[in-house]
């Protein structure tokens, strides 16, 4: 259910810049193109892993993020300077659509980051959802090792992991002293994840991946020593710190409002994820109205299928259907792969020029499952190499074909994989390729669930009921937990009544919402906006409405703020009329 947002937030928003170049000064001849280039340079310094996920080129493969207080201060100053340059730019010089797009992306990106400073997120990075223990193993697997320079870079980058961990621990100690700590339940999940990184031999460590990808014996020997003598001991030290120091100091509360300036932080998180200045109470109200409409649909469908309009009974009947069950984890993985392949062939009905980049469906490790990590998607910069759908298999007895199919189309086709691969195939700017907000990304994936039903991918009554049982509840549950300070018991009850999550998974979802304040509101904030725009276009154009053209307009510019998406669609409608 999550895509590379974890990587973007970790690299760009939670951690600050590495060695920043002397840019962002501007001048009388400043242009949007110059500002965009400097923002890209800033982002590459802040997140040296970006070239592993998008084809923007540049960057360095020999460093990790610099998360020191000095680097954070430098990055803040540079973001302020870039914003000042945007403020000084004469918008009359934005003479084409690409300039307008880059201006909107730049302003949203920088303003959202500046707003997040109130959170001091670098002081509470412990997370099973988007912390370094979940991200870095995947990055180690993607580390280039083809050339002697690549291999030297790999040794330099991962040789810096012990120092990175030490800096993270120093920040976390500052967080404890200042009252910035994560919920204890989140820290316990993170501890389980870290335990899974500690291997008895270097070859068993996930950080040994670069050595596995190379036939250079000297490099293998050097990397073996690095993992054995420095990386694994550093991870053990982090594990001990979590267990002995951090968890005893963590908070019982789940709400981010219990941190210093917590309400301002939650508002900033909402803005960052959704690009909307919509307060949490308004988010919840819209969610409640949408959930009520979905429940009414489920009741009508359940009445026709099962002869009852009781929501709980309908959901229970769907879950109990023998046709929905699996007999093994291998069968679950095979089913997901089959759905992805069937969807790849079917999406030609709703989009032209379907990208050919492959998608690998890979079950999560036991450590990731134990930590409660949700299914997620990670793009690949090279279109010849597969992107990755990490599948949370869960317990066989809890899995249903309906829920697995919904998640597969959300993460694969026509969801995230189609979304990212399609945008990567367009002649977009470097800035637009690194733009990020969850409302657009997850909004498209939520909308893709509806598309999948329309083109026959979600074709059983059980799938149609399940597709309506869960959406928009994140808009209610997220502010419910943080603003309303719902108890864990209330959260679990609210999540399990949809049938989408068994109690143990619902507990994990509760900690996910606690760990990522605001993020779960983004799915339907964006999805509802895309559906509203489509309804507007269909009403305005009638028979001239073309679903392929509409979807191409939504996807073509890559990740954009919702306000710009609306402008783009309305301009397309006007052009068609």
What report would you give on this structure?
With 577 residues, the protein is mostly helical. Helices cover 62% and strands 2% of the residues. The chain has a domain at 124-258. The chain has 26 helices and three strands. A three-stranded mixed sheet has the order 1-3-2, covered by helices on one side. A hairpin with an 8-residue loop joins β2 and β3 (387-391). α8 (184-195) runs antiparallel to α10 (217-249), α12 (280-306) packs antiparallel against α20 and α21 packs antiparallel against α22.
Write the layout of secondary structure elements.
Blueprint: H1 5-14, H2 32-46, H3 69-88, H4 97-115, H5 132-142, H6 148-159, H7 161-178, H8 184-195, H9 209-212, H10 217-249, H11 262-274, H12 280-306, H13 311-320, H14 329-346, E1 359-363, H15 366-371, E2 376-378, E3 387-391, H16 401-411, H17 416-424, H18 430-434, H19 438-454, H20 461-469, H21 473-482, H22 488-496, H23 503-515, H24 522-541, H25 547-556, H26 562-576
Parallel strand pairs: 1-3
Antiparallel strand pairs: 2-3
Helix pairs in contact: 2-3, 2-4, 3-4, 4-11, 6-10, 7-10, 8-10, 12-20, 12-21, 14-16, 16-19, 16-20, 19-24, 21-22, 22-23, 24-26
InterPro entries: DUF885
Signal peptide: 1-24
Keywords: Signal
């Amino acid at each position: 259910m999550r895509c590379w947002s974890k990587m973007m937030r970790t690299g760009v928003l939670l951690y600050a810049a590495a060695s920043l170049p002397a840019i962002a000064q501007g001048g009388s001849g400043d242009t949007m193109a110059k500002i965009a280039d400097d923002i890209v340079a800033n982002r590459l310094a802040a997140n040296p892993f970006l070239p592993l996920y998008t084809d923007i080129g540049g960057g360095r493969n020999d460093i990790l993020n610099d998360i020191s207080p000095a680097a954070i201060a430098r990055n803040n100053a540079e973001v302020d300077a870039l914003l000042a340059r945007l403020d000084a730019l004469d918008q009359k010089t934005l003479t084409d659509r690409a300039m307008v797009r880059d201006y909107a992306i730049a302003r949203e990106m920088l303003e959202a980051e500046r707003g997040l400073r109130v959170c001091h997120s670098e002081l509470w990075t412990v997370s099973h959802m988007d912390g370094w223990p979940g991200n870095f193993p995947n990055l180690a697997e993607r580390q280039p090792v083809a050339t002697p320079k690549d291999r030297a870079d790999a040794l330099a980058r991962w040789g810096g992991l012990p120092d990175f961990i030490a800096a993270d621990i120093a920040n976390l100690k500052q967080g404890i002293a200042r009252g910035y700590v994560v919920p204890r339940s989140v820290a316990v999940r993170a501890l389980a994840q870290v335990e899974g990184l500690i291997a008895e031999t270097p070859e068993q460590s996930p950080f040994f991946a670069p050595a596995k990808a190379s036939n250079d014996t000297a490099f293998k020997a050097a990397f073996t020593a690095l993992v054995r003598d420095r990386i694994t001991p550093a991870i053990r030290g982090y594990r001990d710190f979590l267990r002995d120091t951090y968890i005893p100091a963590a908070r019982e509360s789940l709400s981010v409002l219990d941190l210093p300036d917590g309400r301002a932080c939650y508002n900033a998180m909402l803005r960052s994820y959704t690009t909307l200045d919509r307060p949490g109470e308004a988010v919840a109200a819209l969610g409640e109205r949408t959930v009520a409409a979905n429940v009414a649909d489920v009741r009508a469908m359940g009445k026709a299928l099962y002869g009852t309009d009781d929501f709980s009974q309908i959901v229970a009947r769907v879950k109990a259907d023998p046709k929905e069950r699996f007999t093994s984890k291998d069968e679950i993985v095979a089913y997901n792969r089959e759905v992805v392949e069937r969807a790849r062939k079917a999406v030609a009905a709703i989009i032209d020029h379907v990208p050919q980049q492959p998608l690998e469906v890979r079950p999560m490790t036991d450590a990731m499952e134990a930590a409660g990590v949700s299914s997620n998607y990670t793009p690949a910069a090279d279109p010849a190499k597969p992107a990755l759908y990490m599948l949370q298999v869960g317990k066989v007895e809890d899995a249903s074909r309906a829920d697995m199919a919904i998640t597969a189309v959300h993460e694969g086709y026509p969801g995230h994989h189609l979304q990212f691969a399609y945008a990567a195939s367009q002649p977009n700017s470097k800035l637009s390729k690194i733009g990020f907000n969850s409302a657009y990304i997850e909004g498209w994936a939520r909308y893709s669930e509806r598309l999948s039903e329309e083109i026959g991918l979600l074709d059983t009554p059980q799938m149609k009921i399940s597709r309506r049982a869960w959406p928009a509840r994140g808009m209610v549950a997220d502010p419910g937990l943080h603003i309303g300070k719902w108890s864990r018991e209330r959260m679990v009850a609210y999540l399990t009544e949809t049938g989408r999550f068994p109690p143990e998974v619902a507990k994990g979802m509760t900690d996910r919402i606690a760990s990522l304040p605001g993020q779960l509101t983004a799915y339907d904030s964006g999805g509802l906006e895309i559906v509203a725009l489509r309804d507007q276009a269909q009403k305005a154009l009638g028979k001239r409405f073309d679903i392929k053209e509409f979807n191409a307009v939504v996807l073509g510019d890559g990740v954009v703020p919702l306000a710009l998406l609306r402008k783009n669609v309305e301009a397309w409608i006007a052009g068609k009329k």
